[in-house]
């Protein structure tokens, strides 16, 4: 443990950069990559410390990426606040339920669900979903204009958003998975979000969730043994997030979805391996 807290690990900055770039590109915090990496690098470190470091780094990543997306005017703030307000209570319920649900069973089920979602996204056609006409049964019509003039018009039922927000928050907290990796496919598939708006808005929601969790960890003292590692990783992710946001504007939405599908498959396989 002494080595783990002896000083800033400069070599963690490149790792943070990669996590920030990839996470921002697909609209997630990157914790699904960072946690297993830290567990591998520091096998003798308390898992609570690893988790608290990852969550704090996820916040810096999501905050930096959200700032970049805000400059591009890609974030749907109204929808983001709605999702965040429902996701956080769901996360609290998930944390309270952890002790009553067989973790191994849920890990197995969720691992298979993540892999299934990966295949779904790989073969799901998103062409033509950028603009949606208003229709009956939909009460929330969004009209978003990016800085470059790109117009996004889409609609969704806010009742579905509330239900999905609670579900995503609950499952994320119950299984210890960052909500962003679930949010993006949910926003695209069930709420008709254009891909680039989904990744940007998801990043905004993740920033709020991660900040809440980080504050809890700071109060509990879980982060006290990983301050220097958090600083080094945070430096990397904040720069990586800026490049990820810029890169996302140059990549077609279908490729972002495919990158996300790869991430989902990676997480699903990791969960199954850990559960077996």
Secondary structure blueprint with pairings:
Blueprint: H1 2-5, H2 12-26, H3 31-41, H4 47-72, H5 77-97, H6 103-123, E1 140-145, E2 151-156, H7 158-175, H8 180-189, H9 195-220, H10 227-248, H11 253-275
Antiparallel strand pairs: 1-2
Give an overview in words.
Helix content is 71%, strand content 4%. The protein contains 11 helices and 2 strands. The longest helix is centred in the N-terminal third of the chain and has 26 residues. The protein is globular and about 50 Å long. The protein is mainly alpha-helical. Strand 1 and strand 2 form a beta hairpin. The protein has a two-stranded antiparallel ribbon with strand order 1-2.
Question: What is the gist of this entry?
Answer:
By secondary structure, this protein is mostly helical.
Secondary-structure element series: HHHHHHEEHHHHH
Q: What distance separates the N and C termini?
A: 28 Å
Unreliable runs? 1-8, 127-135
Which class of secondary structure composition applies to the elements?
mainly alpha
Which percent range fits the helix content? over 70%
- Radius of gyration equals 18 Å
Q: What average pLDDT do the residues reach? A: 79
Q: What portion of residues belong to β-strands?
A: under 5%
Could you give the order of strands across the largest sheet? 1-2
The description of the largest β-sheet is: 2 strands, antiparallel
Overall 3D geometry? Answer: globular
* Total beta strand runs: 2
Number of helices: 11
